[in-house]
């Protein structure tokens, strides 16, 4: 068993494709197939079910995949520790980000400052929902990720507080109020976000027993803003996602806080702080330094 074989196994399992795994590694498809067959021969198990148009993990393959990811992550941490001991800031950092709050408000400023300090590090960013990012952290698909706290199954680092707001068409009577009572959502058409905040908006509605008339479900913030601008309904989004520049482009939209006030805490999370790579540690420390007054 070699680390290269494990890497090939992980990539084939993630992509469900020999071709895509070979392309990412820059080797031939036959080399990928040979490495997996050698691994299966050494372990005396079948890792994959190979069908004409589909590849699936066997039961034992799914179990071993988790361990393979752990071993590759440990190897990467070891290499980064070695590089750091020589004063060489090289390697990779994989970051998970969700929604406009993290991806627009937090991440660009952080990445710019991080890149100035560590110009030789290769950075990958994967974007999904809050729940997807937490799952990626657990699976070690990313080294560190943004998360809405608390996350009891992860080690977390609080960064700042955010609130949810209502985006309201100017023509609606609710737009004349200084804040929107969450119960009043039931009186208007509603646009449900399918982006990073969806789970938390749904939880908020359940908490206050509100059942709005959902007219649309949309995943892009700009699309939601455009629909509110066209007087098609009210939406609830995270305040950090709503920049003044975006609102200026949508003159028929006003934002209002909710009653009761609804806060959430955003931070960074890792699977296990004891095995965090030097690159991820540096990223977390920089984030805490930049946002320490906003917790």
Automatic annotation (TrEMBL):
PROSITE patterns: HTH_LYSR (PS50931). PANTHER family: HTH-TYPE TRANSCRIPTIONAL REGULATOR CZCR, HTH-TYPE TRANSCRIPTIONAL REGULATOR YBHD. The keyword DNA-binding applies. Keywords: DNA-binding, Transcription, Transcription regulation. It comes from Acinetobacter pragensis. Gene3D superfamilies: 3.40.190.290, Winged helix-like DNA-binding domain superfamily/Winged helix DNA-binding domain (1.10.10.10). GO terms for molecular function: DNA binding; DNA-binding transcription factor activity. GO terms for cellular component: cytosol. Residues 1-58 form the HTH lysR-type domain. This is LysR family transcriptional regulator. Pfam families: HTH_1, LysR_substrate. Belongs to the LysR transcriptional regulatory family.
């Amino acid at each position: 068993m070699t680390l290269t074989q494990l890497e090939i196994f992980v990539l084939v399992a993630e992509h469900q494709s020999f071709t895509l795994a070979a392309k990412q590694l820059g080797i031939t498809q036959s080399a990928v197939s040979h490495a997996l067959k050698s691994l299966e021969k050494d372990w005396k198990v079948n890792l994959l079910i190979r069908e004409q148009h589909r590849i699936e993990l066997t039961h034992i393959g799914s179990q071993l995949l988790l361990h393979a990811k752990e071993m590759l992550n440990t190897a990467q941490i070891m290499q980064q520790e070695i590089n750091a001991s020589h004063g060489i800031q090289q390697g990779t950092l994989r970051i998970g980000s969700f929604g406009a709050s993290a991806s627009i408000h937090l991440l660009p400023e952080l990445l710019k400052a991080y890149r100035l300090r560590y110009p030789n590090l290769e950075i990958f960013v994967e974007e999904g929902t809050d729940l997807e990012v937490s799952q990626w952290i657990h699976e070690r698909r990313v080294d560190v990720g943004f998360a809405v706290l608390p996350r009891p199954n992860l080690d977390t680092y609080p960064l700042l507080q955010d609130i949810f707001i209502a985006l309201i068409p100017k023509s609606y009577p609710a737009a004349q109020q200084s804040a929107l009572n969450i119960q009043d959502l039931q009186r208007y058409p509603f646009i449900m976000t399918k982006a990073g905040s969806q789970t938390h908006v749904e939880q908020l509605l359940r908490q206050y027993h509100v059942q709005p008339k959902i007219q649309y479900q949309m995943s892009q913030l700009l699309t939601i803003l455009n629909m509110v601008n066209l007087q098609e309904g009210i939406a609830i989004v995270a305040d950090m996602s709503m920049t003044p520049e975006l609102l200026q482009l949508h003159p028929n939209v006003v934002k209002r806080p909710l009653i009761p006030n609804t806060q959430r805490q955003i931070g960074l999370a890792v699977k296990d702080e004891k095995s965090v790579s030097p690159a991820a540690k540096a990223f977390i420390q920089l984030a805490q330094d930049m946002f320490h007054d906003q917790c």
